[in-house]
Amino acid sequence: MEAGHDAAATATRLARAGLADQYMVYETEGGVWHFAAGSAVSLTAHATGITARAAGRTWTSRTDGRPLTAFAAALDALSAAHGPHVGGRHFYGWAAFELAHLLHADPAAAGDGPLLHALIPSVEVTLTGNETVVRAVDEEWLREVADLLAEPAPRQPPERTTPEGAEHLIAAGTAAYGSAVARTVEDIRAGLLEKAVVSRKVPLPAGPAVDFPATYLSGRRSNTPARSYLLDLGGYRAAGFSPETVLEVAENGRVSTQPLAGTRAYGPDQAENERRRTELISDPKEIHEHAVSVRLAWEEMAAVCRTGSVAVEEFMAVRPRGSMQHLASRVTGRLRKDGGPWDAFAALFPAITATGVSKPAALQALARHEEGSRGLYGGAVFRGSTAGALDAALVLRTLIGEGEETWLRAGAGVTAQSLPEREIEETCEKLRSVAPHLRFSAD
Fold this sequence. Notes:
twelve-stranded antiparallel beta sheet; 31% strand
């Protein structure tokens, strides 16, 4: 079909249409939006087993301690069972942060909740500046979506602005967070670890329901993310503007990761932005935090890539991401011939910039100093294909909902040089990428 004039708004309109009980919008590099809905096939993995659903049937199997291997095998098998597809079948999903405990630390800490969820959609829409492509499992789905896209865009009702007190919301819980940072600094100075990304949860108060699609569209207008996503999938709702990818794997085996660490605010005053940029690239704490993240990214890539193929293609560039600017690097490599995208995912997940160094020690520190589980925060939202591609965004700068609860969360990298006051300030700066764009239902 012909391209629409506003891909983000079109993708959001599709999400609002209620075509199925599960959907995802995923924006990839170059301003390409993908919308997927319906679950021709769905998979959910827990610590000990996988449940698959397809064609009205349900199967369960054990993971034998290798959830990603079993997950990838199930995706391939169920995709093949539902007919050939040029270039493989696309899938969409998420990985909860607690999967990290199963991969790198204490498996008992992974809990009994879902760790991975994915669907192979019944309908997929790709929106670019040149065209709109609709793919569907049958003519009925194809016609329904094509007819919806052909309709004039409805007039959007006036958006409800964020309630007064957004800054009060952002500041909630800062005292307890400062104490957690101080305890983590003590752990680092005692030699237990080198860095930990300690986060704090900001629950939204009871009141009008959050409008996730409207929040997504408003936030995307003001953010400059590496990836963005809007989903109602596998029990989670989310609207996010990820500053970085956990990994990007091409079908030819090229893999890359993009660690961001080191942060300053970014606003409308360009002179102030430049002052903060200069401060950022000369701050010993921020440089050290970034350098150890790049070092570990290199080591993790080397474990799954061909010898001699790992390289740092970009080092300590400064990237604006909404209300923030970050030090950014990119590490690339070529997967070994006997490896696949999920092997790379197992090595790189969760992102260093959401955990710390070393990962096992950082995970243990986070279990001590953070309250409750993270769930989707710090995990990944992904799009991939059974032909070998996988694109996974780090879940940060995200509004998250589960059941009746809705919340924001933000963290900061804590090192031996960290000051609680500065790390509190950094979490507030990050929360401002989302909080001002919260929109609420009129009901």
